Amino acid sequence: MKEFTLLFRQPEYDQDNVPAETIAEIGEKWQRWIAGITAEGRLGTGGLRLAPEGKVLKAGGVVTDGPFVEIKEALMGFMVVKAGDLDDALTLAHGCPAIEQGGSVEVRPLFG
Fold first, then answer.
1. What span, in angstroms and rounded, lies between the C-alpha atoms of 38 and 51?
2. Helix or strand or coil: residue 51?
3. How far is CA 80 from the centre of its chain?
4. What pTM was estimated for this model as a whole?
5. Which residues contact 98 (CB under 8 A, 6 or more apart)?
6. Of the candidates 15, 17, 33, 18, which has an alpha carbon nearest to the alpha carbon of residue 100?
7. 85 conformational bin, left if phi > 0, alpha if psi -120 to 50, beta if neither
């Protein structure tokens, strides 16, 4: 099997204004989805949730606050999965809770 990264993008929103019950429900959906992939033996080298703050370095040494200065959605995290091909990896992405929250999943093969 090959490895693919699933990149999770979601519209930016202020999590401080989301009820705690909603945050817990979303977290449980993520845990169930990842547990299903893990149970199939298809979780790759793992993945992480990304912090909202960061900096962007551009050509010429230009540094901006961000990393989401010019976009309306944020890269929220990623994970690596094992799949036979790109379509197989895309099938794994179908259950991703980011989609239910108005986001998207970018599926990319890893070199290696």
1. 24
2. coil
3. 10
4. 0.79
5. 8, 9, 10, 76, 104, 105
6. 33
7. beta
Task: Say whether pLDDT at 82 is over 90.
Answer: yes
Paired with 34 in beta bridges are none
Structure-token match 């799949």, residue found: 83
AA identity, residue 28: E
Q: H or E segment at 86?
A: helix 86-93
The C-alpha R_g of the chain, in whole angstroms, comes to 15
Tell me which CATH code domain 2-109 carries: 3.30.70.1060
Question: What is the SS3 assignment for 70?
Answer: coil
**One-letter identity of residue 45:** T
Is the pLDDT at 70 greater than 60? The verdict is no
Joined tokens for residue 81: 């999965």
- Domain map (residue ranges) of the chain: 2-109
Pairwise CA distance, residues 37 & 77, whole Å? 16
pLDDT for res 13:
65
